[in-house]
Amino acid sequence: MDFTLASFVNALILGLSIGSIFLVAALGLTIIYGTAGVINMAHGEFIMLGAYASYTLQNYLGVPFFLCIPLSFVVVALIGLVIERLLIRYLYDRPLDTLLATWGVSLVLMQGVRLIFGSDPKYIQMPSFLSTNIAAGPISVSIFRVFIFLVGIGLVAAVWWLFYKTEFGIKLRAVTQNKEMAASFGINSGQVYALTFALGAGLAGIAGSLFGVLNIVLPTMGMGYVVEAFLIVVTGGGALLGSILASGVTGEAQSIFAYIFNDTFAQFLVFVLIVIFLRFRPQGLIATGGARR
Amino acid sequence: MLMQLEDVSSYYGKTPILKRIDLNVPKGSCVCVLGRNGVGKTTLVRTIMGLVDRMTGKLSLSGDDLSNSRTDERAKHGIGYIPQGRQILGKFTVRENILLGTFAKKNRTSEIPEMCLELFPYLRENLNRRAGLLSGGQQQQLAIARALAVDPQILLLDEPTEGIQPNIVAEIGETLQMLNKKLGITLILTEQHIKVARKLGDRFVMMDNGRVVEEGEISALTDEVVHRHMTV
Counting CB atoms within 10 angstroms of each CB, which of A68, A122, B107, B178 has the fewest? Predict the structure, then answer.
């Protein structure tokens, strides 16, 4: 391997981009798991639904790409809300059942989309200026990856604002810390869980509309992202800050290992390191101590 | 009567804890619930708050039937709750803990009710402090302020003096007396200290094995009654 400073800086920038993709994929799952303690196996399929929502809006209704992103949030959040009201709310105290039920939901969503759209790949078009690269000397980076990075920062800021600067945030954090006390002060925890689940699903929808541009849109596309999302959430400990740190470190590690060795070995190495890390710190980087019912 | 319990039983899982309780709480009174450890005092206040797995019988407040209401709905009817061990939210600031109480208020504003801070000047000076860092007595003040933010008709206090320094116990007693006598807030408190119960209470309810075994005016809480039901 020929080491040059420029190629190493390129690897660091790529690591940042991988980290931001991990973060966008894991954000919704972090909120659902961190607040309600639900291990949502259908999270990958919510991402897939976001991609199909954007594809449908763009190709059948002519909605511009930038508008598809928030609309995908709304569509998937509504689907998430319906699933929570019809199924998840009866299973909050039964973690194993929730895991199996959400896995079932993931299969239903995947097959449902296959029935409606077929199995052939779909494509989401992005504005042409996003498909170019920014170059500074030997360092080059795709504008779309910068866009994902910025969206990631924007979503984290929005979630932080929602959690710490709004009444809903006080309710949500109260329910997470002590469900009984929250109820004793007039907070309807069922309503908070429903809205949180919808929020998490909606964030997955945004991830889907971005990843649908990065890759092709397929009914099975969520399966790849859900593994990475779970790794980030578990390594981070279920907290927002934990997921930010975990995605940054994991993204950079993967990119640097890929730079030194190759992509496959880099992924293997990252997974091994995460397993070793969790062996010694099973609570993750930042333990939430939140709702684990 | 402000609150009435008629033939109320409650359960954790399938295990009955309270057995066919009848209780009348006059408006403006202070009812002390007494008894040995494990007789069902805490379960009584948790039943009123809707924090047990199952309840049978009838619970009414100001004539409204709350038997089938959720905990948050009961809070919105004006039931304030100070649980055993206070259970303030340690990661919240003092301000956020008090604001939590306002969610149960009918005409809610996002301001902390002035009365909460007038009663406890220490809390006013430490609004942005993390609540988990307060001492036991300060946390109890915060728990009372939080419950007052509900604007309650009735306040349930579960062992409010437990684990508090003796000099602070007297202060808390005075605060509760003021809430009851000056502001007219009805109190139901479970208590181990007979002295506190005699000082604050108008009425007493003696419990044993999940049942009310004796009740009456506080003047009827003689040493003989205490000896009969509370000595081990």
Answer: B107
